[in-house]
């Protein structure tokens, strides 16, 4: 992606210089993490379990300064440009539809982090918390995406993930997320999961819409990087890697094929009205 020298957003909170956050946990943390976080990928029992172990294992962790490397700083700049791009494009799309876009914050962290949705760790993967309207990311996730989940990697894989999380912010502003959670109440787990899949696929669709309006900045291979990331974090791909079997009723994000399909649909159409993932349920 062509990003050097472009506008950087002021809405990035870089907490990477702090080693871990103070993890103060009360009861019901498992519920908070599972129910409230729009975790990007890999929200299997196993990863949530790991996250909790990490959080609970370090209750007294103190904050200590750790200097950022030149590579860390460059990654921070890249993230600021992608966030600025999202602000510009979604600001325009909202304005064209007679609405006002409110810029979310993006928090870069390492280890663990406190959010309005509860404590979380990097094992949860990148996520959006509707409670404080912030995207939380530990950039080490992208190494894992390559080594553990077999994605191609590349800068546009990161751009796609950021755009997916911003997609959840768009859903929050439009009221879609709240409606979805209401609809989940009283439903069986399998039915509630289907709604979650629709929400996730729509976020992939919105990431595609954002990419549509960003075409002049794309390099050859960028779309393949996004599709490879989407492919790697499909529920079927993750389950077969992590637990050796696929349980469709437990899907919360959609299959690899669905995730790629909706990203591509957003990318080709550039029309937010075509993100009709809830109609397919
Ligand atoms: Zn998501």
From TrEMBL:
Keywords: Hydrolase, Membrane, Metalloprotease, Protease, Transmembrane, Transmembrane helix. The chain crosses the membrane at residues 21-40. One of its GO terms (molecular function) is metallopeptidase activity. Its main location: membrane. It is found in: Membrane. It is a single-pass membrane protein. The keyword Transmembrane applies. It comes from the Bacteria. PANTHER family: INNER MEMBRANE PROTEIN (PTHR30168:SF0), PUTATIVE MEMBRANE PROTEIN YPFJ (PTHR30168). This is Metalloprotease. It comes from Flavobacterium limi. The lineage of its organism: Bacteria, Pseudomonadati, Bacteroidota, Flavobacteriia, Flavobacteriales.
């Amino acid at each position: 992606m062509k990003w050097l020298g472009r506008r950087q957003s002021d809405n990035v909170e870089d907490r990477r210089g702090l080693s871990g956050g103070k993890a103060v946990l009360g009861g019901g943390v498992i519920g908070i993490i599972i129910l409230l976080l729009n975790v990007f990928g890999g929200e299997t029992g196993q990863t949530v379990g790991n996250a909790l172990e990490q959080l609970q294992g370090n209750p007294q962790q103190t904050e200590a300064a750790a200097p950022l490397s030149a590579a860390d700083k460059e990654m921070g700049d890249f993230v600021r440009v992608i966030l600025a791009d999202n602000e510009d494009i979604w600001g325009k799309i909202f304005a064209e539809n007679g609405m006002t876009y409110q810029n979310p914050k993006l928090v870069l962290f390492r280890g663990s982090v406190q959010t309005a949705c509860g404590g979380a760790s990097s094992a949860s993967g990148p996520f959006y918390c509707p409670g404080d309207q912030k995207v939380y990311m530990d950039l080490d996730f992208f190494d894992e995406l390559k080594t553990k989940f077999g994605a191609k990697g590349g800068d546009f894989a990161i751009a796609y993930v950021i755009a997916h999380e911003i997609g959840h912010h768009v859903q929050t502003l439009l009221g879609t997320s709240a409606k979805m959670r209401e609809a989940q109440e009283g439903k069986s787990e399998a039915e509630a999961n289907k709604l979650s899949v629709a929400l996730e696929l729509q976020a992939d669709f919105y990431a595609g819409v954002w990419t549509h309006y960003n075409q002049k900045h794309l390099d050859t291979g960028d779309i393949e990087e996004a599709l490879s990331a989407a492919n790697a974090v499909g529920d079927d791909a993750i389950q077969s890697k992590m637990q050796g079997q696929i349980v469709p009723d437990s899907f919360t994000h959609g299959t690899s094929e669905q995730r790629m399909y909706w990203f591509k649909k957003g990318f080709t159409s550039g029309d937010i009205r075509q993100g009709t993932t809830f109609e397919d349920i």
